[in-house]
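Sample pair:
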Amino acid sequence: MQLEYYSLHKSKFSLPDEPRVVSLMPHITDHLLSLKIVPVGTVKVNDYETEFHGYLKKYLTNSMVIGSSIELNLEAIASLKPDIIIGEGKKHLFYLNKLSSIAPTFLFKDLTVDWQLVFKIIGNMFGRQSVVAKELELFKQKINDIKNFKNKTLFSKNILFANHWKRNLFRVYSHKSHLGKILYEEIQLPYAGYDYESIEKPLITLSINDIMQTSVDELFILTDTANPQRIHIQQYFDHDKQKHPPQIHYLPGLKDGIEGKGLILYNQIIQHLFHAISSESKEVQKIV
């Protein structure tokens, strides 16, 4: 089990039982929280916000904002006296020397790989393999319970997930995305995409009216819940062409609706999904 990373810290070092961790990415923060580790510092939504990402906020009441993922506050990070700093090479390689002078720093080269592998690697770093195994087993059991439930309402509807990109353009999650694999391959929900078998990209750019021309029944839009303003996509509908617009739902996501790739967010998405579609079912509520 390997995942390439950048680090100037070559020698072995030990971490205390309660490590002081600084996370430079919300994906990493999600993984740390799932390991029962609350980072002493992590990133905010963007340069114009002062809050953490909405779905993580309630877990981070004692954590400090250390800038955004693309513009770090090095003084704030140093003031926290962390034992370890974890980030992503694509965004933070520029900071590697300065971060390494504060604490051992590890920047993963690629966070787009299998999210469960990233979770396991981070778990290994802190000696929490048993926590990783337990959390993944609980998630797998939840997926199996939902899959085996076979609610007629749920499994008779075509479902799409998307984030709002710009104006009337959306990025739709295909079955090749991390989230799509959970929904369409593991749970086996009906998929309302274009030419399912030929799609190779995890995200497909479509206009709202292109989406309306699919057989979608339920459209779920991932949006950062730190921002209370919702996307009013009805303004983009071509009502002359669209006779049966889908039911619109909003789910927690990251900035611009980017997928979080972690257990906390995936659990919330699944919970919102099944409550939204089967809110009258007590059995579904018990599962999620």
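Residues 225-230, 280-288 have pLDDT under 50 and may be disordered.
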